């Protein structure tokens, strides 16, 4: 059992809880860096896809998990990041090291513009507004054919960094390490954001906007910043997603993707960096697991492999329902309970993580 005694406020804002935790993360980083030396091209491609989804999940997590603002339109900002990155490279002739961060900035600016008229919306009304934006962006991609290629889409060129070309199929290891580097930068930024005054303002707005306003938090400005940072990181994920898929069309960024992103962070664990990674693992590896299971069942029964339409969506929905009913804190929440049980044994209480069912009185005044 490990008991952490806090002797100063530095323990609350430290990057790690203790040295043992830092050691485990160093070992994890060493393992993920060495994965291309241990896995084949297919699995490295799946790991790269998982990291891209994790980046997108962290972007959405800032808005939904940290600030408490519902969004069903983040696929639109994936599209903005992907198209902006490709257009800046092909039409403006900018290198990847310039077009990539600019794509994130453009997506972030679009998020701020969305936040300006929607700062007074809450709950389902905000979700509907973001859903409408996602539909409009999808239609705009088709209409603006001279700029976006319309229904035919656009081809993403190879990534070139200091003369070295990176392609998902030709050198998947290099593309994996590039995506991993972006992921680590986003994690570092996210972790420091949580420890900053802005991150604490996000949490205050999430828990009670009226209480946050009473403490001097500028709620509209905080929401706008949350939208900007969230959509900016999502735009970076969209840019990498464009290079990963090779061809980007409006069908890559439908409303279903927005809903899938929201369900992903709910299953992984709202309000945590770990939750974005756990949710990304479910989104990426669930279809592969179902495919292997279907082939195994076909081999055992001696019949041919039969593709069942909508199977992945149905299983994903069943997993979501199970987590909402039995583990609302997600996969990472379940891990926290298991870890806390062993840390506090035999003093662990069963109701330690009971959900708060009552609303704050300040929230009833809306």
From TrEMBL:
Topology relative to the membrane: Multi-pass membrane protein
CDD domains: TM_PBP1_LivM_like (cd06581)
Bilayer-spanning residue ranges: 24-44, 50-65, 94-116, 123-144, 150-167, 174-190, 224-241, 253-286, 306-326
Signal peptide segment: none
Cell location: Cell membrane
One function term, GO molecular function aspect: branched-chain amino acid transmembrane transporter activity
GO cellular component: plasma membrane
Alphabetized UniProt keyword annotations: Cell membrane, Membrane, Transmembrane, Transmembrane helix
Database matches in InterPro entries: ABC_transp_permease, LivM-like
Pfam family, one: BPD_transp_2
Keyword Transcription regulation in record: no
PANTHER family xrefs: HIGH-AFFINITY BRANCHED-CHAIN AMINO ACID TRANSPORT SYSTEM PERMEASE (PTHR30482), HIGH-AFFINITY BRANCHED-CHAIN AMINO ACID TRANSPORT SYSTEM PERMEASE PROTEIN LIVM (PTHR30482:SF20)
Designated name of the protein: Branched-chain amino acid ABC transporter permease
């Amino acid at each position: 059992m490990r008991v952490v005694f806090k002797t100063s406020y530095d323990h609350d804002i430290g990057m790690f809880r203790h040295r043992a935790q830092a050691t485990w993360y160093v070992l994890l980083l060493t393992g993920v860096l060495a994965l291309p030396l241990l896995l084949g091209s297919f699995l490295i491609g799946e790991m790269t896809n998982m990291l891209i989804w994790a980046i997108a999940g962290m972007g959405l997590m800032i808005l939904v998990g940290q600030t408490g603002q519902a969004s069903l339109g983040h696929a639109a900002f994936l599209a903005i990041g992907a198209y902006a990155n490709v257009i800046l490279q092909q039409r403006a002739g900018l290198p990847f090291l310039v077009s990539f961060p600019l794509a994130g900035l453009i997506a972030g600016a679009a998020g701020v513009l969305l936040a300006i008229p929607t700062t007074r919306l809450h709950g389902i009304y905000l979700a509907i507004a973001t859903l409408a934006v996602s539909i409009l962006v999808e239609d705009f991609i088709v209409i603006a054919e001279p700029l976006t290629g319309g229904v035919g889409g656009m081809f993403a060129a190879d990534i070139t960094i200091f003369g070295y070309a990176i392609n998902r199929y030709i050198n998947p290891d290099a593309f994996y390490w590039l995506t991993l580097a972006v992921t680590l930068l986003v994690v570092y930024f996210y972790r420091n954001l949580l420890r900053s005054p802005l991150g604490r303002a996000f949490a205050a707005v999430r828990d009670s906007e009226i209480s946050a306003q009473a403490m001097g938090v500028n709620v509209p400005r905080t929401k706008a910043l949350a939208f900007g940072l969230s959509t900016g990181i999502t735009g970076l994920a969209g840019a990498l997603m464009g290079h990963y898929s090779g061809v980007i069309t409006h069908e890559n960024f439908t409303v279903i993707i927005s809903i899938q992103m929201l369900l992903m962070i709910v299953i992984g664990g709202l309000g945590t960096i770990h939750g974005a990674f756990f949710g990304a693992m479910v989104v990426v590896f669930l279809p592969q697991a179902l495919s292997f299971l279907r082939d195994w069942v076909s081999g055992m029964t001696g019949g041919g492999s039969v593709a069942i339409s909508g199977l992945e969506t149905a299983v994903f929905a069943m997993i979501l329902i199970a987590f909402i009913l039995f583990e609302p804190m997600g996969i990472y929440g379940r891990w926290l309970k298991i870890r806390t049980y062993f840390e506090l044994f035999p003093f662990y209480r069963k109701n330690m993580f009971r959900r708060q069912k009552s609303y704050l009185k300040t929230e009833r005044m809306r």
